[in-house]
Specification:
single chain, alpha/beta, glycerate kinase, domain 1, Rossmann fold, 2 domains, 6-stranded mixed β-sheet, 16 helices, 20% strand, globular
């Protein structure tokens, strides 16, 4: 008889392993003598006076450790900003920890140190930049008269309104002095190589961490459209709205676009993404004996709606053996959004599991897990949660109303009380979320 809970955790862990940022670096970056290969690009290290490593994101420390292991003493200096609790020992590159998802003063100071380093870059310098999820919040450098507090309030408003990551990062790029390609402006005429671990739908380089080193396709006008869409004009700090309006009117400089000469000596490569994790999770599920289907590695939308669809598919498998027979496994990846209506504590993965658990209440043979590959779901210490058809019923017996917790966006406290939190600790990576349903009518 299968143990669905142990199997589902094993499948999730296989997905996490595939997202290991150090392995992604080592697959992509090779050094032979003084010949450095990055993907299909070749660089003669003898042609450079200095080699610097900079970067930002939850996987920044892991990526820098891997680069130090490959390049060793070729690295002159460097600076990485990562999330609190994601520190790893580095021999040459400096590291600072900062706030995420809300930026803080430590992030501002770290950003200034990176800028100070890069402003000295010359034509004979090579800069290796590592970018991963979380980098937008960790690399805050407010533009114009915008303050850190203004950026904090703006970030919180964007998170609360249900905007997706593309929309959030469009705003972030245009109120920043370093995002949306502006870091590349500072590096030029130095040679810039960016290695990116994707945590966004579509793996768009200009969206990952708000694309500090790549051309930006979005505009100030796009920002104003987002403000109108979510009725944010009166909810954002006046300095932010004024800056965005000034950009539309041409008083503030646009972010550098494709074709700008500052990118002539720049190369960016996505070296890891959710699709790889989803594929590895499927491989493990098949090894464990499950007929497995991948819905998509790019699922987005309102969390509750996505949860209902996933739960309906699991129920159909149990009922009819479609689209896979039992024992069956359904896997998806991506990043949903939660529109905040209550004052509880949670994250999109826990909210997904709670919404789905309500849909499968009373059904045996279905177990589900949803977890953030970064080990963090919202402002909590959990990556997500695990549930099955008995979870809501058992909670009801203890006087816990699952629907009330869901309405209050309080999924963390529901799963904390029922003992179903998924706790991984910092994973040092981030390639969005992984969702798994196991269906077996023999358990």
């Amino acid at each position: 008889m299968k143990n669905l809970r142990s199997d589902i955790r094993e499948i999730f862990d296989a997905g996490l392993k595939a997202a290991d940022p150090g392995e992604a670096i080592r697959r992509t970056v090779k050094l032979t003598g003084k010949r450095l290969m990055v993907g299909d690009r070749e660089y003669d290290l003898g042609a450079f006076d200095r080699i610097m490593v900079v970067g930002t994101g939850k996987a920044g420390a892991s990526m820098a450790v891997a680069l130090e292991g490959i390049l060793g003493s070729y690295i002159t200096e460097g600076m990485i900003i990562t999330k609190y609790g994601h520190r790893l020992p580095l021999k040459i590159v400096s590291l600072t920890e900062a706030g995420h998802p809300i930026p803080d003063e430590s992030g501002v100071q770290g950003s200034k140190r990176i800028l100070d380093l890069l402003e000295s870059a010359g034509e004979r310098d090579l800069i290796l930049c590592v970018i991963s999820g979380g980098g937008s919040a960790l690399l805050p450098m407010p533009a114009g008269d915008i303050s850190l507090q203004d950026k904090q309030e703006t970030t919180q408003a964007l998170l609360d309104c249900g905007a997706d990551i593309h929309e959030i990062n469009t705003i972030r790029k245009h109120i920043s002095g370093v995002k949306g390609g502006r870091l590349a402006e500072v590096v030029f005429p130095g040679t810039l190589v960016t290695l990116m671990l994707s945590d966004v739908i579509g793996d768009d380089p200009d969206v990952i961490a708000s694309g500090p080193t790549v051309p930006d396709k979005s505009t100030f006008r796009d920002c104003m459209n987002i403000l109108d869409k979510y009725d944010l004009g009166e909810k954002l700090p006046p300095s932010v709205v004024a800056y965005l309006e000034g950009g539309v009117q041409g008083r503030e400089p646009e972010t550098p676009k494709p074709g700008d000469p500052v990118f002539d000596k720049s190369f960016a490569l996505v070296i890891g993404s959710c699709s790889l994790s989803v594929s590895s999770a499927k491989q493990k599920a098949v090894e464990l004996g499950y007929e497995t289907i991948i819905l998509s590695s790019s699922i987005e939308g309102e969390t509750g709606d996505v949860a209902k669809v996933h739960a309906a598919i699991a129920k159909e498998i149990l009922k009819s053996g479609n689209p896979v027979s039992v024992p069956g496994c359904v896997i998806s990846g991506g990043e949903t959004t939660v529109t905040i209506r209550g004052d509880g504590l949670g994250g999109r993965n826990m909210e997904f599991v709670l919404a789905a658990a309500i849909e499968i209440d009373g059904l045996g043979g279905i177990t589900l897990l949803s977890g953030g590959t970064d080990g963090t779901d919202g402002p909590t210490d959990a990556a997500g949660a695990i549930a099955d058809g008995s979870t809501v019923q058992a909670a009801r017996g203890r006087g816990l109303d699952a629907a009330r917790y869901l309405r209050n966006n309080d999924s963390y406290h529901f799963f904390e009380a029922t003992g179903n939190l998924l706790i991984t600790g910092p994973t040092m990576t981030n390639v969005m979320d992984l969702r798994i349903f196991l269906v077996d009518d023999s358990v």
